[in-house]
Amino acid sequence: MGSFRALLTASYGRHYLAQQIKPDGSHGSPFIQVDAPGKQHIGAVGDILALESTSIDQARIIDIEPRKNLLYRSDAFKSKSIAANVDQILMVLATAPSFSPDLLGRAVVAAELDQIELRIILNKCDLEEGLDHARTLLAPYQKMGYPIHEVSAKFNPESIQNLQPFLRGKVSVLVGQSGMGKSTLLNAWIPNAAAITQEYSAKLDSGKHTTTACRYFDLPEWGRGSSKLGGMIDSPGFQEFGLAHLSESQLQHAFREFQPLLGKCRFHNCRHDNEPDCAIQAAVQHGEISSERLALFKQLLSDSKTADVQIQGITPAKERWSTSPKPPYKR
Ligand code: GDP
Ligand code: ZN
Q1: I need a labelling partner for 216 at 20 to 30 A (CA). Which of 103, 228, 269, 302 fits?
Q2: CA 94–ligand 1 middle distance (angstroms)
Q3: Which stretches does DSSP call E strand in the chain?
């Protein structure tokens, strides 16, 4: 029997649902249940699969097409793939409860490493008390050129509609701490999202795993770009990106505002810590780079060293990247 192409549209652990891709590039129901028995075919939502039918609504993975990118969730020292072939990250923040600048910083680094666009959506702008504080936290990111959209998913439908042109024809992944309004946004853009979520969870694994499954939603007709319909990937359990095992050079390049200054420190291997004549530390002193960003850089550098040491202690080198067809975090 021949193989056919399908989009991986939902995952819970190694249980996947996929939908066949038609000759015109679109995909549609019915759902096909896919299991990944071996380690060589670990998929992520957004993957394009080559499948071979094993029964009327079941199939096995023959191959996974090369990915444009792959986002990870960090889970102590284990990383789990979350979403593949993503065009942009929508970082959902709110005026209340206050958001974690650290998580925002990490999302930005993940986006830069994979060269994925990132949009910041500041939700609940109807709650004015928290607005100034949120704007202050976001100021460095605005200065670096990341687009920021102030919206109210609940009380200002127009502010949500205004974002539609940025979603059209693209695959976006929603990221944010719980309570920021991700579900409210998803439902505002995709009116049948709740029904689809139910269908996914019923088919995925007897309906128990709605809170941690990862899911792909087609945008409504307004989301059709020049060639394809855009989509949105949501994973309620996806809070933090896997950013361990990065090299110093990869990290430096993920900090957009460091770029013009790289190579301008006195020492070529400067770690921008306590070294004299450091261009980055000088920029922090002059208020051109925020001290929080330099602190995040140092934190990530130290995390990635710890992770390397730990993983070398517990995992045979050969197995280290066995869940992925290519080493993560490298382009
Ligand atoms: P999630 O955990 O990120 O999916 O967040 P939810 O969408 O469940 O929203 C969390 C809470 O914030 C809910 O009580 C929503 O009704 C509320 N909420 C969502 N959007 C807004 C908004 O624009 N303004 C206000 N005031 N509340 C909102
Ligand atoms: Zn330096």
Answers
A1: 103
A2: 9
A3: 4-12, 15-20, 32-35, 48-55, 58-64, 70-75, 78-84, 88-94, 117-123, 148-150, 171-175, 214-218, 231-234
